[in-house]
Design brief:
The chain is an alpha+beta fold. It has a single domain, classed as Orthogonal Bundle (Arc Repressor Mutant, subunit A), CATH 1.10.10.10. 63% of the residues lie in helices and 14% in strands. The chain is built from 6 helices and 3 strands; from the N terminus they run H-H-E-H-H-E-E-H-H. A 3-stranded antiparallel sheet has the order 1-3-2. A hairpin with a 2-residue loop joins strand 2 and strand 3. Helix 3 packs across helix 4. The two termini are 25 Å apart.
Length: 123
C-alpha cells in the first residue's frame, strides 16, 4: 500500500511518510509537533523530520505559540491548502484499490483491529 501511495503522491513531492502529518494538520490546524506525535502515535524525531520536509516543500509553516513561546504551532500554507484535496483524492484511489472484495463492515472491523494493534505496540 505504501508503494501505491508513494506513486500517487510523487507529483506533489510528498512521501508516503509525510501525507499523514499533512492530513492531520489540515483537519486540526494550529497543532504543536508534540500533539501531532501523540495523536499519530509516532515518535518525536520522525514527526520532526516529516514536518521539516513538508515545510521545505512550503506546505506547512510554524509560528510561535502566543500562549507559550516554548512551543511552535503548525499551520497549512496556501500551497498546503491547495494540495490537501489532491492528496485526499490520491488516498481515496489507493483505498478503493485495497477495498476490492471487502465489505464496509469487514473493512471497518479490520481498521479497528489495526488501531488496537498499534496502540498495543505503542504502550
Amino acid at each position: 500500500m505504501q508503494v501505491l501511495i508513494s506513486a500517487e503522491l510523487a507529483p506533489y513531492r510528498i512521501g508516503s511518510g509525510q501525507y499523514i502529518f499533512l492530513m492531520v494538520i489540515a483537519f486540526q490546524e494550529a497543532i504543536t509537533q508534540k500533539a501531532l506525535s501523540e495523536k499519530l502515535l509516532i515518535d518525536k524525531t520522525t514527526t520532526a523530520k516529516a514536518i521539516a520536509k513538508l515545510e521545505a516543500e512550503s506546505y506547512v509553516r510554524r509560528e510561535a505559540d502566543p500562549a507559550d513561546n516554548r512551543y511552535q504551532l503548525i499551520y497549512l500554507t496556501e500551497s498546503g491548502r491547495e494540495v490537501v484535496p489532491k492528496v485526499q483524492q490520491a488516498l481515496d484511489r489507493v483505498k478503493n484499490k485495497t477495498r476490492k472484495g471487502i465489505t464496509d463492515e469487514e473493512y471497518d472491523l479490520m481498521m479497528v483491529s489495526l488501531k488496537k494493534v498499534l496502540r498495543n505496540l505503542s504502550e
